UniProtKB/TrEMBL annotation:
InterPro entries noted in UniProt: 2Fe-2S_ferredoxin-like_sf (IPR036010), 2Fe-2S_ferredoxin-type (IPR001041), 2Fe2S_fd_BS (IPR006058), Beta-grasp_dom_sf (IPR012675), FAD-bd_FR_type (IPR017927), FNR_nucleotide-bd (IPR039261), MRET (IPR050415), Riboflavin_synthase-like_b-brl (IPR017938)
Source domain of life: Bacteria
Organism field: Nocardia brasiliensis (strain ATCC 700358 / HUJEG-1)
Lineage: Bacteria, Bacillati, Actinomycetota, Actinomycetes, Mycobacteriales
Protein name: Ferredoxin
Pfam families, alphabetized: Fer2
Length: 580
């Protein structure tokens, strides 16, 4: 995308402008600046050493602001359309946004869209005046006002709406082509822009000039011909299209596209044949496994991700990845032997090197977000998802701290290595020699707006959730290896689930899970843990309000109405409509 932007910029700088720029002397130097900024970003993105994210985002914002200045201050038409590349570049650099920035971006999109609709309605009303008036002077003033609106307010509104919409799609799970309603909104916006720039603008300028001429010669509005009708139907049609886009956002019809069904979670992932390449003990009761694909490279992953191991017995277990995300030849996981477990850890501990197993995933319900500082609190084997996070943050020069609790030092996997590598940032607290960590004190010493990550046994997670409630200036992100008691004490009521793609409506009685009801009709919906922990059964909600009982969603996501984990969650009302 950066290369495409640089190509457009070089062509715009070398070739003569399509339309004269407002500040002609600044046009070529500004394109030179944009080429330099884009080239700098190419160097930073492709650098071997990880570049701090704030530097990349700073470069992305500089690119966007410079393109906007070139488009709307210098007055270069090519730069207006170059924003269609600049904003996706910034959105790609930003990645998936945290809830607060995401809400701010959505709010900006809504405000811009409301302004666009308001301006289109106003111009349509002016066109009605131009159609109905018998006074040529009124007609002249009306066309001049319409031309002024079309040249000043309207471009800002429609470009702001279009660009914030692109950013929302690229920085959230909606995407641009994963859902029919999102793709339809994109087509509507692009269509309106091309009609406005390619036809309506020239028609308005011609009508305004003709009305001024008739006003000087004493003519009548009837001599303007169909100009008023063209303006009315052009802007009236745009207004109706914008209303249609608003309705699409509200009702979200159509579900996923074919691309969306491939990309989004909630569909059964294929099992990749793999072999156990290495096995070694790293702590008392814990082994580290290296798993390689039999005949292909493994899918990419990001810190916080986990995979399903499909064992020879057919058992499926989830384990966090702790290796290097750049290594596509192998995955590394750590497995704690749990004598009182369901048998999965024992089977894995008994596997010899060379054993054939299956891999499904990876999935990431515990992603590393952008924050000014980080506090990691790990309990036992909960240390594993933090290892790639720490490596990435340390390489980027970010501020972070780890507090690691375990039964004893010999049982704390990776503990000694972490303390040796990061002595000023890591605190080990073995239970046989140290008291429990004072979570309130830890949070008081944590910078404001920091991201707090916690993974480990349920008592640690519950204590951290209680502590964070007393320190709301930080954001908490948790991952559980076992289901909590979130659904205990809640009454199950009967409800209906409409499976939108087939139109089938299935009843869900109190003694049956929603997932079981869905799988009776659509067996492709995935299932791994069945406890609301792994996230493999994620299903898109099109209507209705979910009763979230899973342990995948974070605290600030539990009011979401667009997704449900049906292995444990239910409906708050009488009906849910699902995209299956």
């Amino acid at each position: 995308m950066l290369v495409a932007f640089m190509t457009v910029a070089v062509a715009a700088m070398v070739l003569p402008p399509v339309f004269p720029a407002t500040l002609a002397a600044a046009r070529v130097p500004m394109w030179g600046l944009l080429i330099a900024v884009a080239g700098g970003l190419v160097v930073l993105v492709t650098a071997e050493r990880a570049v701090p994210r704030r530097i990349l985002l700073g470069g992305g914002w500089l690119l966007v602001v410079s393109v906007v200045l070139q488009a709307f201050v210098v007055g270069d038409l090519v730069a207006m359309f170059a924003t269609w590349l600049a904003v996706p570049i910034l959105a790609t650099l930003a990645g998936q946004l945290r809830p607060k920035p995401r809400k701010a971006l959505v709010a900006a999109h809504i405000v811009a869209a409301c302004c666009w609709v308001g301006i289109a309605v106003t111009i349509s009303a002016m066109a009605v005046v131009a159609m109905t008036t018998r006074d040529i002077h009124t007609s002249r003033v009306t066309y001049e006002l319409m031309a002024v609106f079309d040249l000043t307010l309207l471009p800002w509104a429609n470009f702001a709406t279009f660009l914030t919409g692109l950013a929302v799609g690229l920085t959230t799970s909606w995407g641009l082509f994963r859902y029919y309603w999102v793709a339809a909104k994109l087509a509507i916006a692009v269509g309106i822009l091309f009609v406005a720039f390619g036809f309506l603008h020239d028609a308005l300028e011609h009508a305004a000039a003709r009305a001024a001429q008739l006003a000087e010669t004493g003519g009548s509005p009837a001599e303007l011909g169909t100009s008023a009708m063209v303006a009315f139907w052009g802007f009236g049609g745009s207004t109706l299209s914008l209303v249609a886009a608003v309705l699409l956002s509200l009702y979200k019809p159509g579900g996923k596209t074919r691309r969306g069904r491939r990309v989004l979670t909630g569909r059964k992932q294929p099992v990749v044949p793999a072999v156990l390449a290495d096995r070694r003990e790293i702590a008392d009761g814990t082994i580290a496994l290296t798993v390689c694909g039999e005949d292909r490279t493994l899918p990419e992953w990001t810190p916080g991700a986990h995979i399903d191991l499909v064992l020879p017995s057919g058992r499926v277990r989830q384990y966090s990845l702790y290796g290097d995300p750049a290594d596509t030849a192998s995955y590394r996981v750590a497995v704690l032997h749990e004598p009182d477990g369901r048998g999965g850890s024992k089977e894995i501990h008994d596997l010899p090197v060379g054993a054939r197993i299956g891999i499904r995933g990876p999935r990431n319900n515990f992603p590393l977000i952008d924050a000014p500082a980080y506090l990691f609190v790990a309990g036992g084997i909960g240390i594993t998802p933090f290892l790639p996070m720490i490596r990435r943050l340390h390489g980027a020069g970010s501020e972070w701290r780890l507090v690691y609790r375990g039964r004893s030092l010999p049982t704390m996997a990776f503990g000694k290595a972490l303390l040796r590598q990061y002595p000023d940032r890591v605190t080990l607290l073995p239970a046989d020699t140290h008291a429990r960590p004072d979570l309130d004190d830890l949070l008081r010493r944590t910078p404001a707006a920091a991201a707090v990550y916690c993974c480990g046994p349920e008592d640690l997670l519950a204590a951290m959730e209680s502590a964070v409630a007393r320190h709301p200036y930080v954001t908490l992100h948790t991952e559980r290896f076992a289901a909590s008691n979130r659904g205990d004490g809640q009454t199950n009521t009967v409800f209906e689930a409409e499976l939108r793609r087939s139109g089938v409506v299935v009843p869900v009685p109190p003694d049956r899970t929603l997932l079981a009801a869905i799988q009776a009709v659509d067996p492709t919906v995935d299932l791994s843990c069945a406890d609301g922990v792994c996230g493999s059964c994620a299903t898109r909600v099109l209507a209705g309000v979910p009763d979230h009982r899973d342990d995948v969603l974070q605290a600030d996501e539990r009011d979401r109405v667009d997704i449900i984990y049906p292995c444990v969650s239910r409906a708050r009302g009488d009906r849910l409509v699902l995209d299956v």
